[in-house]
């Protein structure tokens, strides 16, 4: 049995990078929702709360798209 170490390292590097990016994106979404709640609680302008909510939903949508693409790659 011969192990292709270059391919194994490439898969490890890509999976590590994508995992860190996906966790970071999800964290940004959670922070956006927290900012939206804080802006609403302080009675701030509706614009900043709506912007934080929109950014959070965009982060969650990108996470869902990345997961769906990963499932597509596995199934196809």
Short structural summary:
This protein is mostly helical. It has two helices and no strands.
Describe this structure in words.
This is Secreted protein. It comes from Streptomyces formicae. Keywords: Membrane, Transmembrane, Transmembrane helix. The chain has about 80 residues and is mainly alpha-helical. It has a domain at about 25-75. Helices cover about 90% and strands about 0% of the residues. It contains two helices and no strands. Helix 1 runs antiparallel to helix 2 (about 45-75). It is elongated, with a radius of gyration of 18 Å.
Distance between the termini: 27 Å
- Summed over residues and divided by their number, the pLDDT gives a mean of 91
* Secondary structure tally, helices: 2
Show unreliable segments: none
Rg over CA atoms: 18 Å
- The tally of beta strands, per DSSP, is 0
Backbone structural class: mainly alpha
* Largest β-sheet summary: none
Spell the H/E element sequence: HH
Helix content: over 70%
Q: What sort of overall outline do the alpha carbons produce when their principal axes are compared?
A: elongated
Strand content: under 5%
Please supply descriptive tags for the structure shown above:
single chain; 76 residues; mainly alpha; 88% helix; 2 helices
What's the SSE blueprint?
Elements: H1 5-41, H2 46-75
Helix pairs in contact: 1-2
């Amino acid at each position: 049995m011969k192990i292709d170490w270059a391919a194994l390292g490439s898969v490890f590097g890509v999976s590590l990078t994508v995992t860190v990016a996906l966790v970071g994106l999800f964290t940004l979404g959670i922070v956006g929702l927290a900012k939206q709640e804080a802006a609403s609680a302080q009675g701030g302008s509706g614009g900043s709360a709506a912007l934080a909510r929109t950014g959070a939903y965009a982060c969650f949508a990108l996470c869902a798209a990345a997961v769906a693409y990963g499932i597509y790659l596995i199934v196809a």
